[in-house]
Amino acid sequence: MNLPNKITIARICLIPLFMLFLLVDLPFGELEMFNDTIAVSLLIAALIFIIAAGTDWLDGYYARKLNLITSFGKFIDPLADKLLVTAALIGLVEIQLIPAWIAIVIISREFIVTGIRLVAAAEGDVIAASNLGKWKTLTQMVAIIATLLHNIPFSAISFPFADLMLYVAAILTIWSGVDYFVKNKHIILKSV
């Protein structure tokens, strides 16, 4: 297994640790930051998520720089993103930091795209992530981080950055899903 794929697998392995700090009420207390209070365990969860999200850029960088792009990497990298984002969204709904409908929209799109990828793989095709899909992932990651951090530091100026990013992520998710379907409908039609 090459370095980029190992980094991607590490991202997947960080998910249970992230969920532990997100969902388990650990007795670490709270911190005051920018005139707001945040649970230390939630701050640790945010840091783990940031590290995991950062590996998405890192594995892609090394895959391109070292010319280590593989079919496995094209498949596992977007899957790792989906697992991380899905885990975060479900956790954030559980602790009532985001509305369930946003999680449903984003997760539904991920299931549909994964289904198309599986059909493509059965036909011997591998579909790499598009630029729009990468922007969608980036906005989802930023929205999740801002939400995990309770909109700090923007809460100090009463700017709803986290909420705004959640809506931008939902819109880009829908847009990229439609774009993905249109660009790959020939794969679906071929398999029917």
Can you describe this structure?
With 192 residues, the protein is mainly α. It has one domain: Up-down Bundle (Four Helix Bundle (Hemerythrin (Met), subunit A)). Helix content is 74%, strand content 4%. It contains 7 helices and 2 strands. It has a two-stranded antiparallel sheet with strand order 1-2. The protein is globular and about 55 Å long. The two termini are 34 Å apart. The mean pLDDT is 90.
Main features:
single chain; Four Helix Bundle (Hemerythrin (Met), subunit A); two-stranded antiparallel sheet; mainly alpha
SSE order and pairing:
Layout: H1 3-23, E1 30-33, E2 36-39, H2 40-65, H3 71-94, H4 100-122, H5 131-148, H6 161-183, H7 185-191
Antiparallel strand pairs: 1-2
Helix pairs in contact: 1-2, 1-3, 2-3, 3-4, 3-5, 4-6, 5-6
InterPro entries: CDP-alcohol_PTase-I, CDP-OH_P_trans, CDP-OH_PTrfase_TM_dom, CDP_ALCOHOL_P_TRANSF_CS, Phosphatidylglycerol_P_synth
Subcellular location: Membrane
Keywords: Lipid biosynthesis, Lipid metabolism, Membrane, Phospholipid biosynthesis, Phospholipid metabolism, Transferase, Transmembrane, Transmembrane helix
Any idea of the CATH class? Mainly Alpha
How large is the count of helical segments? 7
- Secondary structure class reads mainly alpha
Based on the structure given, which CATH architecture is correct? Up-down Bundle
- What is the 3D form? globular
Subcellular location: Membrane
Protein name: CDP-diacylglycerol--glycerol-3-phosphate 3-phosphatidyltransferase
Membrane topology: Multi-pass membrane protein
Keywords: Lipid biosynthesis, Lipid metabolism, Membrane, Phospholipid biosynthesis, Phospholipid metabolism, Transferase, Transmembrane, Transmembrane helix
